[in-house]
Specification:
The structure is a homodimer of 220-residue chains. The first copy, chain A, is 41% helix and 17% strand. Chain A is of the alpha/beta class and 220 residues long. Chain A has one domain: P-loop containing nucleotide triphosphate hydrolases (Rossmann fold), CATH 3.40.50. A seven-stranded parallel β-sheet of chain A has the order 3-2-4-1-5-6-7, with helices on both faces. In chain A, helix 3 (74-80) links the parallel strand 2 (63-69) and strand 3 (86-90). In chain A, helix 2 packs parallel to helix 3 (74-80). The longest helix of chain A is centred in the first third of the chain and has 29 residues, at 2-30. In chain A, 47% of the residues are buried. The A-B interface holds A 1, 4-5, 8, 11-12, 15, 40-44, 69-72, 74, 93, 95, 125-130, 146, 148-150, 152-153, 155-159, 171, 173-174, 177-178 and B 1, 4-5, 8, 11-12, 15, 40-44, 69-72, 74, 93, 95, 125-130, 146, 148-150, 152-153, 155-159, 171, 173-174, 177-178.
């Protein structure tokens, strides 16, 4: 049975890679920069993204978001507070987004036209394992890690951190009560993914967002 | 391809259920009470379990732990500080433990004899989705949620909370700086899983452990 699973898994990932390649062409043709945000549940992806969308809007950047969850549209409602167009994807038990879901939702999303956007953010299902294997055609994969989670997460989930293009540390406002060891976290991130840019942020206080938004602007 | 995946998935889960039933008989024959601890990465399963093992030891209860991670033996080393026998399982990319892994590791674990144990704790891979489908033969599944994670996790990961027999809220010592809404969290847990016992704990201060240990003693 193991051989069949490995073969089938390869087939699924190959099909996903093909669909992701099409998405990548579609994003490029539309001139939209696409991000895929991945993290553990509870890291604060939604709060981080809501503030990012709001601050981009204030800078005149056109951004939208797709957000994946197993159930509920809580995150879409929270993100919509930013004023940006947002669409919820419910995976109903699937532990990650895939390229087919993204393509389908972009086709059905009447409210936005990709060429009118500067940036599209995809907030993945909260999971540090499964989303690492599924390319969504994004140009930049962002892995988030909160100060509450333990500094060894990069070592324990190396594929996720190794496949990321940028890392964001969230909730730095509560680093002290959490006993967060900043040097150790940075060391572990860079051990798994040497040279990756790391942004230390708080969606509550706004710490680190100026640097993060400058990075976004540079990527365009 | 979807039909083949669904069929194969059913086959895998059926095989796991059979192996889990054997494990359940094996645990019963040995008179050992088995727990399966599941949560998001960073909830604090290891700190919670380390303190549980240490306090059980002080009460004269014989307990051991199996701990699953994709990579590293960090958690086994942390748990070993309790003085209890501990064995690390590395899944190398698999997002959950399964009954076959547990059986294999119990067979190979020379240092313990199941009949000599009162309790065995299995700390699953940090993931709020995949472990929910894999029965490990445990009698009690414990889902953990930290005050840092957001009160809506039960609604967003209903299968995990719905399949649990007990819920533990961790890190209550930092509830205030995290702005944790206790009433909302309890409401959401009970909405998904009515009547489930909930333990509010801090592995740092020891809050809630007396109640939790009394619960463990009652389950024997």
């Amino acid at each position: 049975m193991t051989t069949r699973i490995v073969e089938l898994r390869r087939g699924i990932l190959k099909k996903n890679d093909e669909l992701a390649a099409h998405l990548r062409e579609r994003y490029a043709a539309a001139g939209v920069l696409v991000f895929n945000l991945v993290s553990s549940p509870g890291t604060g992806k939604t709060a981080f993204l809501e503030r990012t969308l709001r601050e981009l809007r204030a800078r005149g950047t056109q951004a939208a978001a797709l957000v994946g969850d197993l159930e509920t549209d809580n995150d879409a409602r929270r993100l919509a507070a930013s004023g940006a167009p947002v669409r919820q994807i419910n995976t109903h038990g699937i532990c990650h987004l895939d390229a087919e879901m993204i393509g389908k939702h972009l086709d059905e999303w009447q409210e936005i036209a990709l060429p009118a956007l500067d940036m599209l953010f995809i907030e993945n299902v909260g999971n540090l394992v499964c989303p690492s294997s599924y390319d969504l055609g994004e140009r930049i994969r962002v892995v988030l890690l909160s100060v509450t989670e333990g500094e060894d997460k990069p070592l324990k989930y190396p594929t996720m951190f190794n496949s990321a293009d940028a890392a964001v540390i969230t909730k730095v406002d509560i680093a002290e009560p959490c006993g967060f060891d900043r040097e150790l976290a940075l060391k572990n991130i860079h051990e798994v993914r040497p040279g990756i840019p790391v942004f230390e942020t708080s969606a509550k206080t706004g710490a680190g967002f100026a640097t993060w938004l400058d990075f976004l602007a540079q990527q365009r």
